[in-house]
Amino acid sequence: MNSRQDSGSNRLDDAARAGWLYYVAGNTQDQIASTLGISRQTAQRLVSLAVSEGLIKVRVDHPIANCLDLAARLKSRFALDLVEVVPSDPASSSTIGVAVAAAAEIERRLRSPTPIVMAIGTGRTLKAAIEQLPPMECPQHKVVSLTGNISPDGSAAFYNVIFTMADRVKARSFPMPLPVIASSPQEREMLLSQPMIQPTLALAAEADVTFVGIGDLGPKAPLYEDGFISESELKALQKAGGVAEIVGWVFDREGRMIDGITNDRVSSASLPSREKSLVIALAMGERKLPGILAAVNRRLVNGLITDERTAAALLAAS
């Protein structure tokens, strides 16, 4: 058993070395084979293994002209403070491009020696972005969660990323040990008034930069699929005009918060001030288009990382 584990570990070591030689040092596969004393075919397999196991992360830093143009037009049209547009994959609707771009933006800010407070929302794209971060030592920064981290069944919320991020970047982390949506408005008020929660809420309000996802309110709404709201609650939110949510707060096509239903039970912190700080949404895709448009029009966010197709659709719809 141990010998097999050691063998697997050694193979990953070899893959990491081969990946570094190829992507960082610029060696050819023939040169890697010669350096490591292996065949060219083995060198090729090790380089592929390094990528598939996430040991090597490839990032394209050259800006693409159309993406730059779309970003500039979005920034101007919606008075946004930050916009990044990544290429769209014609054959896929994967959010990995947005996740990688968001990871680069998060990493850039965490590399700063000046202490900052970074607030983090939740969602699939944000989770993918955090997973792209390299290991870092950032004891000067504070990372605070905007959302509760407890699912309706009492388990940890899967797409709450505060603990994953804290482990990656070794920054002081401030989770929100609450259910995402309380059982009643009275329970919500009681939970948020607890002495251990008040400092976290105050810290979230002081965030210098915030990263959030935008969830749609369609049939496969993340809030519904992840078990935070029932089917009847989803239908009630849709009937009331809800099109999307940010950290659980549901809003309509005009960016106005829906009265009651689930919004009076959401335990999330309010979004930090968009006048004093940067709140960046990571979002793309046709299903999320109404929510993204409402969020940028109403200035629920003042930053956006998206893809070409979504950027073009936002401009066409505005």
Automatic annotation (TrEMBL):
<dbReference type="GO" id="GO:0003677">
    <property type="term" value="F:DNA binding"/>
</dbReference>
<feature type="domain" description="Sugar-binding">
    <location>
        <begin position="63"/>
        <end position="316"/>
    </location>
</feature>
<dbReference type="InterPro" id="IPR007324">
    <property type="entry name" value="Sugar-bd_dom_put"/>
</dbReference>
<keyword id="KW-0805">Transcription regulation</keyword>
<keyword id="KW-0238">DNA-binding</keyword>
<keyword id="KW-0804">Transcription</keyword>
<comment type="similarity">
    <text>Belongs to the SorC transcriptional regulatory family.</text>
</comment>
<dbReference type="Pfam" id="PF04198">
    <property type="entry name" value="Sugar-bind"/>
</dbReference>
<dbReference type="InterPro" id="IPR036388">
    <property type="entry name" value="WH-like_DNA-bd_sf"/>
</dbReference>
<protein>
    <submittedName>
        <fullName>Sugar-binding domain-containing protein</fullName>
    </submittedName>
</protein>
<dbReference type="InterPro" id="IPR051054">
    <property type="entry name" value="SorC_transcr_regulators"/>
</dbReference>
<dbReference type="GO" id="GO:0030246">
    <property type="term" value="F:carbohydrate binding"/>
</dbReference>
<dbReference type="InterPro" id="IPR037171">
    <property type="entry name" value="NagB/RpiA_transferase-like"/>
</dbReference>
